[in-house]
Amino acid sequence: MTTTTDFAAINDRAEERRVRRERWLTRITQAATWLRVLGLGWLVPLLRIAAGDSPRHQLRELWQQLGIPVIGIAAFVAAWAVLAPTVETSLGTIPGPAQVWEQTGGLWADHLRERDKEAAFMERQERRNAKLVAEGKADQVKWRGYTGKPTYIDQILTSLKTVALGFLVATLVAVPIGIASGLSRTVSGALNPLIQIFKPVSPLAWLPIVTMVVSALYVDASDLFPKSLVISAITVTLCSLWPTLINTALGVASVDKDLMNVGRVLKLPTWKTVTKLVLPSALPLIFTGLRLSLGVGWMVLIAAEMLAQNPGLGKFVWDEFQNGSSSSLAKIMVAVLTIGLIGFLLDRMMYALQAAFTFTTNR
């Protein structure tokens, strides 16, 4: 027979479960923003269901966050698989998803084989040098780097290095000029015609000029920054700095005038006015410009690498196009998908930085 004490114990346990559930739901709510920033918003409904929230509402949210995108991707892959064999080109039919996946595995296997060759080369070199030291011929010891062909993974890393260099230079140029333009109508009036003229210029137009200038000035190229990489990076800089410059100027010009007047009343130096008042208020728009610039830079990079022969993804696409083998089309499509996925990840990275440094995260 259930007693009053038993009922009290049952109620206590129920209350404890409720408190625990509320605590977990609060933590999930706090983590939800970051999960959405990282493109993992679909995990939130699953975590809420696991924490004991209403499954009906959360399953509806999961359908919106995950179900519909998955159906869209599946429909695209199905249409690709059905329609691709019907298109005939000079290199054969357009490869379907299966052929592209097969070439993806082949490129990864090539990378692993090349790394094995590198490891074997370094091992032979170490044995030879150890033998020379043992024979008292230490002066004949030589160390050489492995000079094998770059693999697909190496080319991806080269492209990331190039776009990072170009984007960094573009940011260092665009942000200060944008701040000056936003603070001064005179500077803005002087720069605006130049921005409107140079902003639409294609990377294909910049590349010959950049190539000639770099070839004339950058005579002693280093191994870390070869000439082709520098040419590609400068082309990326010239094409990607405009969104950051324009958005920075707009953000600075939009700072609350009352806030600026407070700075004048307190007689703050220009540097403190910029760092304490202007930048915190303009950061959301600055980061929007940075996201746009990074996207533009990544798109420009591929064309720049094709023509500058920088050993990145652009050169990989060009070489496969020139190769004309039966597997070239599939490899080019692997590169296209890789470029798209990396572009998405770079945008998510900038969005995460925007969320970390500002209090607004506008998609």
TrEMBL record:
Q: Note the CDD domains from the entry.
A: TM_PBP2
Protein's cellular compartments: Cell membrane
Q: How is the protein disposed in the membrane? A: Multi-pass membrane protein
Against PROSITE patterns, the record matches this protein to: ABC_TM1
List the GO cellular component terms. Answer: plasma membrane
Coiled coil location: none
The record's family statement is: Belongs to the binding-protein-dependent transport system permease family.
Annotated protein name in UniProt: Nitrate transporter
